[in-house]
UniProtKB/TrEMBL annotation:
This is Flagellar hook-basal body protein. Coiled coil: none annotated. Keywords: Bacterial flagellum, Cell projection, Cilium, Flagellum. InterPro entries: Flag_bb_rod_N, Flagellar_basal_body_rod_CS, Flagellar_FlgE/F/G, Flg_bb/hook_C_dom, FlgE/F/G-like, LlgE_F_G-like_D1. Residues 214-257 form the Flagellar basal-body/hook protein C-terminal domain. NCBIfam families: FlgEFG_subfam. PROSITE patterns: FLAGELLA_BB_ROD. Belongs to the flagella basal body rod proteins family. It comes from the Bacteria.
Length: 263
């Protein structure tokens, strides 16, 4: 009976964590370049029950599940819809056919080193450098910060950044992440890459075709209707485990109070 309590409790914890993940997805349904998280649910190893004193297959009762847990949450790198904004600092990154498991990202930098983002909603800071909305510098192919000076820039489909006089300022760094599953979210639209295979440039790389659309942004790839459906299913599953936990609790209470009572 106590094992049943643990199994139901594990189910509640797993569904609570999944609900938190789905809620975060819904909260970022309008965040440019956001990639929805998806959960991997796994069961703990089953236990084989045998009758006491039983020998051979006739003594076996069967397998007993020991609960479920959320093993991991990974971003879904499916291309999001593209929306026109008319803003010269909005740049949508559109992927071509990539190797399986790969993804394209803009390259930026943080205090902890190279970071990557799919949010092409750029800004120009007070010093004239091209940054993300959270203030992280966008890098060129040489790993340098891009000094745009003003918002009057042109970004070509290949990623060349031109000033108001059509002079080239820099080439945006677009990189191929060969193991997208090894990208870890760090907040503010940034990802850290923890894969063993190194990231490489997509500029001039025939195996990583892309095009940039200035005046457009890539929207979040969260499917709001599907996410709401999953949230309702998750809540129902949580409540089912909760009722089971309450039933075990009531049975234990009865066992403690009634069984063995002297009449």
């Amino acid at each position: 009976m106590l094992r049943g309590l643990y199994t139901a409790g594990a189910g509640m914890i797993a569904q609570q964590r999944r609900q938190e993940m789905l809620t975060n997805n819904m909260a970022n349904a309008e965040t440019p370049g956001y990639k929805a998280d998806q959960a991997s649910m796994r069961t703990f190893p089953n236990m084989l029950l045998e009758a006491r004193g039983g020998n051979g297959p006739h003594g076996q009762i069967g397998a007993l599940s020991t609960g479920v847990y959320m093993q991991e949450r990974t971003p879904n790198f499916r291309q999001g819809d593209v929306q026109e904004t008319g803003n010269s600092l909005d740049v949508a990154l559109l992927e071509g056919a990539l190797p399986e498991g790969a993804a394209l990202m803009f390259e930026t930098v943080s205090e902890d080193g190279a970071r990557y983002t799919r949010s092409g909603s750029f800004t120009v800071d007070a010093e004239g450098f091209l940054t993300t909305p959270s203030g992280h510098y966008i890098l060129d192919t040489d790993g340098n910060e891009i000094e745009a000076s003003s918002e009057q820039i042109t970004v070509t489909p290949e990623g060349h950044v031109l000033d108001a006089d059509e002079n080239e300022i820099a080439q945006l760094s677009i990189v191929v992440i060969p193991e997208a599953a090894q990208l870890v979210k760090e907040g503010e639209g940034l990802f850290a890459y923890e894969g063993e295979e190194a990231a490489v440039t997509a500029v001039g790389n025939e195996e990583a075709p892309y095009t940039l659309e200035q005046g457009f942004i890539e929207r979040s790839n969260v499917d709001s209707r599907q996410t709401m459906t999953e949230m309702m299913n998750t809540m129902r599953t949580f409540e089912a485990n909760q009722k089971m936990l309450q039933a075990y609790d009531q049975s234990l209470e009865r066992a403690v109070n009634d069984i063995g009572r002297v009449q």
